[in-house]
Design brief:
The chain is an alpha/beta fold. The protein folds into 4 domains: 5-117 and 293-358, D-Maltodextrin-Binding Protein, domain 2 (3-Layer(aba) Sandwich), CATH 3.40.190.10; 121-291, Periplasmic binding protein-like II (D-Maltodextrin-Binding Protein, domain 2); 370-447 and 610-673, Periplasmic binding protein-like II (D-Maltodextrin-Binding Protein, domain 2, 3-Layer(aba) Sandwich), CATH 3.40.190; 451-609, 3-Layer(aba) Sandwich (D-Maltodextrin-Binding Protein, domain 2), CATH 3.40.190.10. The protein is built from 21 helices and 25 strands. Helix 4 (91-97) packs across helix 13 (377-392). It is globular, with a radius of gyration of 32 Å. Mean pLDDT is 86; it is low at 1-33 and 698-721. It holds the Pfam family Transferrin. One of its GO terms (biological process) is iron ion transport.
């Protein structure tokens, strides 16, 4: 049986009376003995971290405590799972859950910049008076504020007008975004849609070159940049009132200010209405197409009444902790909702004309959705949250998430059952051998944070260069690991024709004894490649485990990721590290080997790798690759490190429910198109490409040995038969 909201409110009112009695001293007396704390979930970002560090401790003597999350969707999950009592959300997050968790989350208050405005803004269409009805704008000139997400203007708002008046195109010879641009180009004679059309600069240039009429009404049609006079909210209105365009799509508050400031005769213009008619341009009687709600305070249903009353008590407050609380809520003026108006998200959003319907536009059939393969339950949950966030913030195409093992994900992409998978560096060779190719790479902004593969020896070792290691003992993190592949590639290049075609045989001949950590998974490896491995040893981190073999004296050289080792050693342990006053008396313990003596210089890298690579099948079309790349770039723009606003809706590269290294490796800062990496020399992608070619040699060698073995057996049989016959 459904719960009656009014009975719930009465139930909570009873608890609120108890709360009031307990905190009767909330307006001045000491609150040191507070037993109940209302948990406010706040989002920590580069913009809010200082504020949180300063203000949350000031709530110690208040009935509030801070719960910290990296994004707003994280705070929403906290509310749903009863790990927090209230938080601040954008209306887009309410759209994402409007059909779920009924009565688990209630809207208690709005956070307003302008106290008496019912909504954040309204969007209208304004045209010259010659336009008699909405359909008359076909073939006219459009003044558009731009495609890119700025302030509160999102893709959903920028596309709403065209989604209602222009027939949707689903040409499979174009990306979803180009279909939209193509439809606009055909509908209007010309337009000014200045600013970036795509986060991919090359694709942006290609589209603007192809659909020049959509920049023709700009002051500088050849560039169509965001520096154009007719770019943005104010620019779109100037475009209309300068008589460059016939119709514009703008915020009502901007139009009201513009017409008044420029003293423009409103009788020369009309409102276009969603029903197809027009109305005189009387700003008090607008035809509104869509309204944007304010930010809201939402609370867990069991706490909603108390939170609403608490928020109501803070209007015009002078209490220190209450001021701290308001500042944590992004310094907005708080207007309290009436207790009787506590609503579930869907009911609250229904107050705002067409806001929810803007998110219900039909997609193309068959679906263009991107099937994203992830490796475990936590990655699946994060991927599904990313999907929800992407939908309400207008990212296309949408994603569908599937969970498999890394091996199954690679097979799935290979067989066309999946579209993309984020392969870690250790999976990249297998991915390439399966016919997969990177689209983008997960990158860090700091060179020292990339994976750097090196050969480490002890400082007193007799080895000076890589070739000196002949006959030594070695440890590798695994067969066909990044370190293994980098070493094999280097030695092949240095040894010319003398290097064995089989990499396993070549390494086995080069080193006397070794430990290849995953030898159990490769039973056919020569015995000396795992003769030094400790049986039944507990595995922790492959790089640290391989390094332990070196520090214990079991091996002479370890092929490992220097980034990992540096995080576990002390400053001054390596020759190349700077010595300062804290370690001036320390003596280096380790050296890095290269093809030449590098004991006192910059460490020689056998290879460097990105943090990971999103791979797809190499045979997908250029159009599909572009569509996926554009989708990933849009996600990076909205949910990456350079998000718009104070806090991110979703943290693409951050932790999820306190768990790190999910989907994207920790340390990821941005995505780079494959082939555009800043570091070029000893790039692991090139090593993988060369290594893949060597597989032909190895396969041919294996076939030849089987063939020669068969021939030899035949010869032996013939000899025996001849001898028997002679008897």
């Amino acid at each position: 049986m459904a719960t009656n909201p009014r009975s719930m409110i009465a139930f909570h009112m009873f608890h609120w009376l108890i709360f009031t009695l307990i905190f009767v001293n909330i307006h001045g007396q000491s609150t040191a003995n507070i037993d109940k704390k209302w948990r406010l979930c706040v989002v920590k970002s580069e913009h809010t971290s200082k504020r949180i560090a300063s203000l949350c401790p000031k709530l110690a003597e208040s009935p509030i405590q801070c719960v910290i999350e990296p994004d707003r969707f994280g705070c929403l999950r906290r509310i749903i799972e009863s790990d927090a009592d209230f938080t601040v959300l954008e209306p887009e997050e309410l759209v994402a859950i409007r059909n779920y968790y009924l009565y688990k989350v209630l809207v208690t208050n709005e956070l307003k910049l302008i106290q008496y405005e019912a909504e954040r803004f309204k969007i209208v269409a304004i045209a010259h008076k010659s336009v008699q009805r909405i359909w008359d704008i076909k073939g006219k000139r459009l003044c558009h504020p731009g495609f890119n997400t700025v302030d509160d203007w999102s893709t959903v708002f920028s596309t709403y007008l065209e989604s209602l008046i222009i027939r949707k195109e689903c040409n499979f010879n174009m990306t979803l975004f180009e279909n939209r641009v193509h439809a606009l180009s055909n509908f209007f004679e010309m337009a000014c849609i200045a600013g970036p059309w795509s986060s991919d600069a090359i694709f942006d240039y290609q589209l603007k070159s192809k659909y020049k009429n959509l920049c023709a009404a700009c002051e500088n049609p050849s560039s169509c940049y965001n520096t154009d006079k007719y770019y943005g909210r104010e620019g779109a209105l100037l475009c209309l009132t300068d008589n460059v365009g016939d119709v514009t799509w703008v915020r009502l508050d901007d139009a009201r200010v513009h017409f008044k400031a420029e003293m423009i005769d409103t009788q020369d213009y009309k409102f276009l209405c969603p029903d197809g008619t027009t109305k005189p341009l009387i700003f008090d009687q607008p035809c509104v197409w869509i309204s944007k709600p304010w930010q809201v305070v939402v609370a867990a249903s069991q706490s909603a009444v108390m939170i609403a009353n608490l928020m109501n008590s803070m209007v015009n407050t002078t209490h220190c902790w209450k001021n701290s609380l308001l500042q944590l809520m992004e310094n907005y003026y708080v207007t309290s909702a009436n207790i009787d108006a506590l609503e579930v998200p869907s009911d609250y959003l229904s107050r705002f004309p067409n806001f929810v319907s803007a998110y219900a536009q039909s997609g193309c059939r068959p679906s263009r959705a991107v099937r994203w393969c992830v490796m475990n339950n936590l990655e699946l949950y994060k991927c599904e949250s990313l999907r929800d966030a992407s939908i309400v913030y207008g990212v296309e195409p949408t994603i569908n998430c599937f969970q498999q093992t890394s091996e199954s994900c690679l097979k799935g992409v290979q067989n066309g059952l999946m579209d993309i998978f984020l392969a870690r560096p250790e999976n990249l060779l297998e991915a390439r051998m399966r016919g997969l190719k990177p689209i983008v790479h997960a990158m860090t902004n700091v060179k020292e944070e990339v994976n750097r593969i090196v050969a480490i020896v002890r400082v007193n070792s007799p080895f000076k260069i890589i070739k000196d290691l002949k006959g030594a003992r070695a440890s590798f993190t695994g067969y066909r690991s990044v370190g293994w592949n980098a070493f094999v590639t280097l030695m092949r290049n240095m040894s010319s024709r003398n290097w064995d075609c089989s990499d396993a045989q070549a390494v086995a001949k080069f080193f006397k004894n070794s430990c290849v950590l995953d030898w159990n998974n490769n039973k056919e490896l020569p015995a000396n490649l795992h003769s030094l491995c400790k049986k039944d040893a507990k595995r922790t981190n492959d790089d640290l485990d391989a390094f332990d073999y070196l520090t214990s004296g079991t091996v002479d050289v370890a092929f490992v990721n220097l980034k990992v080792i540096e995080s576990k050693t002390e400053a001054g342990d390596f020759y190349y590290e700077k010595i300062d006053h804290r370690n001036i008396n320390r003596r280096p313990k380790y050296r890095i080997l290269g093809p030449t003596d590098t004991s006192h210089g910059v460490p020689y890298l056998l290879a460097w790798t990105t943090l990971g690579s999103i791979v797809a099948h190499e045979n997908i079309t250029d159009l599909r690759r572009q569509e996926i790349y554009s989708m990933l770039l849009e996600m990076d723009k909205l949910f990456g490190k350079k998000f718009n606003g104070q806090t991110p809706a979703f943290s693409l590269y951050g932790p999820y429910d306190g768990n790190h290294d999910l989907i994207f490796p920790d340390g990821t800062r941005n995505l780079q198109l494959h082939g555009h990496q800043v570091l070029r020399e000893r790039n692991y992608d090139e090593i993988v490409e060369n290594f893949t070619k060597q597989e032909v040699c190895s396969a041919a060698s294996t076939w030849m040995s089987h063939f020669l073995g068969t021939v030899s057996l035949c010869i032996i049989v013939v000899i025996i038969l001849n001898r028997l016959l002679n008897c």
